[in-house]
Design a protein that fits this description.
CATH architecture: 3-Layer(aba) Sandwich
Number of domains: 1
CATH superfamily: Alpha/Beta hydrolase fold, catalytic domain
Number of strands: 10
CATH topology: Rossmann fold
Structural class: alpha/beta
Radius of gyration: 16 Å
Strand content: 15-25%
Order of helices and strands: EEEHEHEEHEHEHEHEH
Distance between the termini: 28 Å
Strand order of the largest sheet: 1-2-4-3-7-8-9-10
Shape: globular
Number of helices: 7
């Protein structure tokens, strides 16, 4: 395990001794990613390097644009993507001392929204994992349908809790319908996209849900690259 800081972000790298392997970038609200890494090991997915990034300005750096109806969301995702690609990942490669096979972007909740959004702003990631992505975010479906990826991703993995639509918040109640609509749109465009509906609400088995996504994507990419 390697721990260091870049641009006020806390970075933890797991499985760095595996050598030239895929790297999963995981933006998280808090913690060093240890629980997620343990879940990945428990389900038999260890043939990748996990880079956990925390100390993120969550409501700014994970949101694609500012929302007047929700003033706490200030839309700094594009700026953070530039920092991620041109500084953080550069420093990660210096620590690893090699250029990885490819990069996958993963996240949960707002970071799940960010994972998909990042595909429209950078071609650094070959695949994206969105766990309970905040697809209720105003105008995100419209954005998806009006814009193109900078580079077509090889795989998109989307998951959601089946009870998340039961929120008392009217905006959050849209999450399942919006997630389904985005999934169907990507499917119609011929993308390799997988959608999994999990038991429970938003905060149930979060690390396990993301670990399942990582295992699915890494396995499929390994097969496609052989």
């Amino acid at each position: 395990m390697i721990e260091f800081k870049v641009a006020n972000k806390s970075i933890t790298i797991y499985n760095e001794k595996i050598g030239n392997a895929p790297v999963v970038i995981y933006n998280t609200f808090s913690g060093n990613g240890n629980e997620l890494w343990n879940e990945c090991k428990n389900i038999g997915c260890t043939d990748f390097i996990l880079v956990n990034i925390s100390n993120i300005n969550w409501n700014d750096e994970m949101t694609p644009w500012a929302e007047s109806v929700m003033s706490e969301y200030t839309g700094g995702a594009k700026k953070y993507i530039d920092e991620l690609v041109n500084n953080i990942i550069v420093q990660v490669e210096k620590k690893l001392n090699f250029v990885p096979l490819y990069y996958v972007i993963a996240g949960y909740s707002l970071a799940g929204l960010f994972s998909i959004y990042s595909l429209y702003e950078t071609d650094k990631f070959v695949a994206a994992i969105s766990g309970s992505g905040s697809f209720w975010y105003p105008n995100f479906i419209e954005f998806v349908k009006k814009n193109e990826f900078l580079k077509t991703p090889k795989i998109i993995y989307i998951s959601l809790g089946g009870k998340e639509k039961n929120s008392k918040n009217e905006l959050l109640q849209k999450v399942q319908d919006n997630t389904q609509e985005i999934f169907e749109y990507y499917k119609e465009k011929g993308l390799d996209v997988y959608y999994e509906l999990n038991n429970g609400g938003h905060f149930k088995d979060t690390n396990f849900r993301v670990a399942k996504g990582i295992k699915y994507v890494i396995k499929k990419l390994k097969v496609s690259n052989n």
